[in-house]
């Protein structure tokens, strides 16, 4: 592990990153409403893990076996918090916010809510599985394998720190900026902001697409009802041929409505969730960059404080001092030995300068180490993000191809029957 003695930096070293790479596939599925010991209801998710890592198969030598456990949202939240505490320089993938999802879905036990959350939780675990450091964490293995998770959970919760001091530091430096920012990090922030803007725009566009599809599907359903009524009107007369053609045409309209609904379900339950999750993931990256800046600000402020202390000491040695004429006269009238007082101030400043010098060295090491770990993390983020976008856009294309192929077959048959 790469660490600074102060215990602030902790992340994977090159040695850890060069360990054997194992396949780790995680699927979250089958959300089920359950009742807890105290009578409260919650949703349980089935988490299936397929890996060739022997450590995951301690009680089963067959590495092809799929490991299945059931976890609830609070379990994943605990996993997130533990990873955040153990790997402060890593971008920990965000979880879907509980309150936001409740607001959107209206009912946290509805199929729409649980399916969207299920997909979002899978995105969370997939990102961890693709991360070269987080995927090797002991807590992840316990989470994915252990049948005694509830027992482990009590111990984890008791030992989890609150990190109040770090939160306070972050708040104090919230309105401060780094004096000297490297070109490399300026470029990273610019690319991050552009990606965030693009994803946000896509999210807005596809929300409109989903609403438009809902409206069109509803119109097709109304058209189908009207054609059905018309079919019933002509079915009892001598227009049997017309009745059959109306029925064939109506079947085509029905298939079009169903197909549009299926496409819309994919967009709403998966693609839009992917976009929103990526927006949150980008924000996690932004927070890491801010934390990196905070370490740099800490160093710069210490450096500035040390410079002021040295200047004050040098002025006192030169005989200028920091006291004004009135203060000097008052001290003289009070019988204070100004020369002795000056020497005492110089001695105190010498002690302070020595202490600040040591703190500055540590702060420099911390800032430099954090910067290097952040650059590694940016590289991991880019790799995971690229893989995600490729898969998400591939699924989007596949679903549209499936829809149009089905419609082509449907309306080819309709055209044949009508002619």
From TrEMBL:
<keyword id="KW-0472">Membrane</keyword>
<dbReference type="GO" id="GO:0010009">
    <property type="term" value="C:cytoplasmic side of endosome membrane"/>
</dbReference>
<dbReference type="GO" id="GO:0034498">
    <property type="term" value="P:early endosome to Golgi transport"/>
</dbReference>
<dbReference type="GO" id="GO:0048471">
    <property type="term" value="C:perinuclear region of cytoplasm"/>
</dbReference>
<dbReference type="Pfam" id="PF00787">
    <property type="entry name" value="PX"/>
</dbReference>
<dbReference type="GO" id="GO:0034727">
    <property type="term" value="P:piecemeal microautophagy of the nucleus"/>
</dbReference>
<dbReference type="GO" id="GO:0000407">
    <property type="term" value="C:phagophore assembly site"/>
</dbReference>
<keyword id="KW-0813">Transport</keyword>
<dbReference type="GO" id="GO:0032456">
    <property type="term" value="P:endocytic recycling"/>
</dbReference>
<feature type="domain" description="PX">
    <location>
        <begin position="23"/>
        <end position="151"/>
    </location>
</feature>
<dbReference type="GO" id="GO:0032258">
    <property type="term" value="P:cytoplasm to vacuole targeting by the Cvt pathway"/>
</dbReference>
<keyword id="KW-0446">Lipid-binding</keyword>
<dbReference type="InterPro" id="IPR027267">
    <property type="entry name" value="AH/BAR_dom_sf"/>
</dbReference>
<dbReference type="GO" id="GO:0036010">
    <property type="term" value="P:protein localization to endosome"/>
</dbReference>
<dbReference type="InterPro" id="IPR036871">
    <property type="entry name" value="PX_dom_sf"/>
</dbReference>
<dbReference type="GO" id="GO:0061723">
    <property type="term" value="P:glycophagy"/>
</dbReference>
<dbReference type="GO" id="GO:0061709">
    <property type="term" value="P:reticulophagy"/>
</dbReference>
<dbReference type="GO" id="GO:0000422">
    <property type="term" value="P:autophagy of mitochondrion"/>
</dbReference>
<dbReference type="GO" id="GO:0005829">
    <property type="term" value="C:cytosol"/>
</dbReference>
<dbReference type="InterPro" id="IPR001683">
    <property type="entry name" value="PX_dom"/>
</dbReference>
<comment type="similarity">
    <text>Belongs to the sorting nexin family.</text>
</comment>
<keyword id="KW-0963">Cytoplasm</keyword>
<protein>
    <recommendedName>
        <fullName>Sorting nexin-4</fullName>
    </recommendedName>
</protein>
<dbReference type="GO" id="GO:0032266">
    <property type="term" value="F:phosphatidylinositol-3-phosphate binding"/>
</dbReference>
<dbReference type="GO" id="GO:0005769">
    <property type="term" value="C:early endosome"/>
</dbReference>
């Amino acid at each position: 592990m790469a660490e600074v003695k102060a215990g602030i930096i902790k992340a994977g070293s090159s040695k850890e990153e060069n360990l054997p790479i194992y396949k780790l596939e995680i699927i979250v599925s089958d959300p089920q409403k359950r009742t807890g010991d105290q009578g409260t209801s919650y949703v349980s998710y089935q988490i299936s893990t397929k890996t060739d890592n022997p450590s995951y198969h301690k009680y089963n030598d067959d590495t092809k076996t799929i490991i299945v456990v059931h976890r609830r949202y609070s379990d994943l939240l605990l996993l997130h918090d533990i990873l955040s505490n153990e790997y402060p320089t890593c971008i920990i993938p965000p979880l879907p916010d509980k309150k936001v999802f409740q607001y959107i879905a209206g009912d946290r036990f509805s199929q729409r809510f649980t399916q969207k959350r299920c997909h979002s939780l899978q995105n969370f675990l997939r990102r961890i599985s693709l991360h070269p450091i987080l995927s090797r964490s002991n807590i992840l293995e316990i989470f994915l394998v252990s049948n005694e998770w509830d027992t482990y959970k009590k111990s984890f919760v008791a030992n989890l720190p609150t990190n109040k001091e770090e939160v306070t530091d972050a708040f104090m430096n919230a309105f401060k900026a780094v004096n000297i920012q490297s070109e490399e990090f300026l470029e990273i922030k610019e690319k991050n902001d552009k990606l965030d803007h693009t994803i946000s725009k896509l999210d807005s566009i596809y929300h409109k697409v989903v609403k438009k599809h809902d409206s069109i599907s509803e119109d097709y359903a109304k058209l189908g009802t009207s054609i059905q009524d018309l079919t019933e009107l002509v079915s009892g007369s001598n227009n049997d041929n017309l009745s059959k053609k109306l029925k064939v045409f109506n079947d085509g309209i029905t298939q079009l409505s169903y197909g549009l609904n299926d496409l819309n379900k994919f967009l709403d339950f998966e693609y839009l969730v992917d976009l929103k999750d990526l927006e949150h993931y980008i924000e996690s990256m932004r927070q890491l960059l801010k934390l990196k800046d905070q370490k740099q600000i800490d160093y710069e402020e210490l450096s500035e404080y040390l410079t002021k202390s040295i200047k004050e000491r040098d002025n006192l040695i030169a005989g200028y001092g920091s006291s004004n004429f009135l203060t000097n006269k008052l001290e003289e009238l009070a019988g204070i030995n100004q020369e002795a007082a000056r020497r005492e101030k110089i001695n105190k400043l010498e002690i302070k300068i020595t202490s600040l010098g040591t703190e500055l060295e540590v702060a420099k090491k911390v800032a430099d180490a954090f910067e290097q770990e952040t650059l590694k993390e940016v590289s991991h983020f880019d790799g995971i993000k690229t893989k995600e976008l490729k898969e998400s856009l591939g699924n989007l294309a596949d679903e549209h191809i499936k829809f149009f192929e089905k419609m082509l077959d449907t309306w080819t048959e309709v055209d044949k029957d009508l002619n």
